[in-house]
């Protein structure tokens, strides 16, 4: 197994290396790849130092799998070049997600769709992944009609520049701004750029990606995405209207029995998901499960996950594991 990690020096790249180590992903040859300005840097993995190489050298090496976390423009240019030499690309950017001929994969939900012919596979948006992890089993049982989601997203979702902005503001230091306003002691209803319809790109990803993952356009999703001053972990307030009625005990049981989900739902003991507890974990945590008393067949939930792990690195590596375990690379 020759594995290339493109974007190895970035925030998600660092987490990917940690997850690869934790999960003991079998690698015979590891290629750490980044932009030209990072070429030659050394990164340690499992006690061994690796020199960062450029994209041309990585393509020439013809890796079995290349996991990309280097931004959409890099993916658009370079993923096809890797695919041409037989490499299977797992891309963490938004570049390929909504392309009709590219599969958008959350392994617990739809990895069975993958074949040897899939040379560019899209990793969904971080907020989408945790949302569909909770929605998929409930949709199967009760059939969703409409979902209203409001997100509370960590600055780590923007990247290292945003984390630095928050840390600078907390320390009273003037520095480079990732956002148009301060984030410390603030909440910005502005994740990604605005589109013509008044929604941000992040909000439209949440509206469109779940339909593709679940291969079902009979339900609709509307979203408001908000950036909050937490260092890691995304949270979501979710209101789901189903076609069929449900029993709250059955809802909790279904979620509890779903691989990758941990139910934390006991108001008597103040037990509910929080980003501080999701940090460095791969599970999607679900709590505050209750009936919406204003309309029939409608459920409220609170969903939390570490956006750099299950929302990015872990999901991509789970895709790679599925490919290897099913002889698809």
Word description of this protein:
- NADP(+) binds at residues 9-12, 37-38, 156-157, 307.
- The protein has ten helices and 13 strands.
- The chain has helices at 11-22, 55-60, 72-84, 107-110, 126-142, 160-171, 201-213, 248-256, 275-278, 309-325; strands at residues 2-6, 29-33, 42-45, 48-51, 65-68, 88-91, 120-122, 144-153, 220-227, 234-242, 261-263, 284-291, 298-305.
- Strands 9-8-10-13-12-11 form a six-stranded mixed sheet. A five-stranded parallel sheet has the order 2-1-5-6-7, sandwiched between helices. The protein has a two-stranded antiparallel ribbon with strand order 3-4.
- α1 (11-22) links the parallel β1 and β2.
- The protein is globular and about 60 Å long.
- The model has no long low-confidence stretch (mean pLDDT 97).
How many strand segments? 13
Q: Name the helix and strand elements from N-terminus to C-terminus, one letter apiece.
A: EHEEEHEHEHEHEHHEEHEHEEH
Under CATH, the homologous superfamily of the largest domain reads Dihydrodipicolinate Reductase, domain 2
Poorly predicted segments? none
| Overall body shape | globular
The third-level CATH topology of the largest domain is: Dihydrodipicolinate Reductase, domain 2
> Number of folding domains?
2
CATH class of the largest domain: Alpha Beta
Helix fraction, binned, reads: 25-40%
Biggest sheet details: 6 strands, mixed
Question: Which architecture of the largest domain would the CATH scheme give at its second level?
Answer: 2-Layer Sandwich
Question: C-alpha Rg, in Å?
Answer: 20 Å
Q: Count of helical segments?
A: 10
